[in-house]
User: Fold these one by one.
Assistant:
Number 1:
Amino acid sequence: MKILASLSVILALSAPAAQATVVGFDDLIGGGTVADGYGGINWGGDWSYFDAPQNPYNPSSPNTRIYTTGNASSGSFSFASDVVFGGAYISGFGFEVIFELFLNGSSVAVINSIFPSNVATLVGSGYSGLIDEVRVSTAASEGYFVLDDVTYSVSPVPVPAALPLMLLALGGLGLAARRRKG
């Protein structure tokens, strides 16, 4: 039993942890279209940014935030690899905004009934599975909302050194079992 506990500790310590990435847009100055690849995200021309004060479109962190290009009622962004979407801050007018999470073209989670106000509010995804695209839409004909501090984590990839550690631990288990029999 002690060996199994030791093995669990070794494997837990050797497993990489996911690092959260927060895309805050604060280095974007003025206004314009968010470039593909910014913050590790493909924006697809759907998102623009601005840094001038404008209530109720208040950022979570100073000063820049994004909105759907042309105030469209929907926009999407995607990732080059599968990620865990943590959420984003939203502010704007008080109508429903829906976040839909996708993996390989299939919807895997929907976050709805978010009614933005002039206070930037965190909309956590509540979904811990992998996704590769986020679609944001409103029930209104025009998208009067802004996003800030988009957060995601890249799924951890096993470290190559973990395999030899695991084999060493399994070998130790085999030796211990052999000693008990003999």
Note: The first strand starts at residue 20 and ends at 23.
Number 2:
Amino acid sequence: MDFLELVKNRYSCRVYKPLDVEKEKLEYILECVRFAPSAVNKQPWRFRIVSSEAEKANIQQCYNRDWFKSAPMYIIASILHDEEWVRSDGKHHGDIDIAIAVEHLCLAATEQGLATCWVCNFDAAMCKELFAPSENEEPAVIIPLGYAADEIKPKNRKAFDAIVKFTIREKY
């Protein structure tokens, strides 16, 4: 599968089959995450795998949606604020770095025949209390991971010219 086909196949899955994710696939996905770029190569992140029944019950309290409960496992992507790069004007790059790493995760999962969904609208305070051992760790995204039980829906995307503006004299 070429890269364009891969990104077209990645979507926000909201129904998962009750099948376990193979250890080899999970390790492959996390290895792809490990190589994600970050500002000044700081890698200010932690990825917590949630797969035990007790931990799954806890994470489901943080985002109480029926579809969310169908996932066989979850990954909590956290920013480690004491490790993130800060630009000279004070701009923190942890949010940018975690977004890059999470999209590496989602694309790698898609390549492996698995499905994901970015979940950012969760009870962050509860998630931090349940899963973040240090004050400097901020849970930023929860990613359900598993085999899709639904189908890819067509993506509504803006036209190319609506998002790209050339500032050079010649068009490619």
Note: The first strand starts at residue 45 and ends at 50.
Number 3:
Amino acid sequence: KSSISGFERLGQIWSKPTEAKIRMTKDADPINVLVFGGGYDMNYEDDSYVPTSSAHAKGNAIYIINAQSGELIWSTSGETGGTKNVKTEKMINSMVGGITVLDRDNDGLMDHLYAADLGGQVFRADFENARPAKFGFTVVNNFSNKRVTRILDTAPATEAFKKYAYRFYERPVVSFYRNEGISGQTVANNGKLFALVNVISGNRSAPLSTLRNTNEYANRVYGIIDTDVTNADLYKNGFTPSVVNITEGKLVNLASTLGATPSEADKNTAKVTMVKGSMHGWFYPLTRFDGYNNVRHNKGMGDSAVINNLLYTTVYNPDKQYGNVASCAAKISGGSERQLYCLPYGICMDDTSVSGTGGYIPAGQGIQELTLGAYNKDNTDIKVLIGTTTITDRIDAAKRAGYGVDGKKKDSNIKDLYPGEAIR
């Protein structure tokens, strides 16, 4: 309850806590901990609710607790108070999604976490575990937080537009790549490892919302290139993060940069800006759906997943129609599809990718979150997408209602995930 000391910022906990291990002191065994966001503030039921610097939303916190005793070990929030809390000035929005934790050095202990909020922000927290003087390592006496960094800041600056803040309801998805460099050119980060952090926005509290009634404010899928988290100097005194408060101006808008049918040269030009490090990632406005462009009211829904350098994510559109339903009859509103994006730079270089994306796969009526299952009992490591779309829905495009003023049908493709095996 929010009356318990140290947990005053708790809201409604929507997501499953993340399990992790840490070592508190140099001579102690690792302990099990639970990591979770502060939760949901019911004020977000109002489609245009915006917390302010003087009136923060409940749930604007991240907690680490002892999994056995429930004791608070560490927290961060936008508030001052308590010996175990780190104040993070801009943390004023609810943290509803799960927390993504990383083990930096493969010792089984948590070293980093990523968290996203309902105000268009993504944070990374870096930790140093206690360590005995073994194997030539320098002793570290106590577990500690090194810093909390806001790596993404997409919150609108203008008061009139703050109601369009991008709401991230799910945990960030983190995958790792090496900078491939550019043939014949010197690139500072050539060959260096970096993390790609993907998040997608959408109002889960109001999936039928039409607040974003022009695509100027369309929801987005983001790919943030984090070169700090893999930096060997991250824990050294005096280290200054470079991936801080990344705004729209430091990200490539791939929809406008590539256009509807980009050439190979267009794709390469956009990609080079990220390879060189002049841009810190990319985003796509969620304006594509069912093979059409300029579609309004799309929303990212549910967890995303990275498989074989492809981001799989679910997009829901409340205006999608399946056949004719009497006006007084009960019905399922809208439909979902799986959208695919090539990683790490968000651009599919294949000639078959007409738009530069990985295409889409219909997922069925209503909100259909991404569901992965084992291929069979003998191949549990091979994953398949599970959905409710019927064979008829997949084959008979005539059963789909058009979008009228949203634009003419565009060429859209399903990327070949494996050579010679087309997705149909």
Note: The longest strand covers residues 144-153.
Number 4:
Amino acid sequence: AVTESAPSGSTEITAPMPGTILSVVVSKGDSVKEGDVICVLEAMKMENEIKSTTSGTVVAVGVAKGATVNSGDLLAAIG
């Protein structure tokens, strides 16, 4: 269930593969650095830390704990 969409001009962090969100580490308004963990995605019985590809402020969080995502779904947006 997508809760927010990414504002234009922001960097989208998307799901690299289908899976289930085990935890969301950031909240809207949080400041992140490149490489910071955004959320943990379980896929094929493995936990994958999804990391920010840029530094900035979280402007949208597209998922919640327990959500099922498909490849390419918005996880978060960094502005």
Note: The chain has a mean pLDDT of 94.
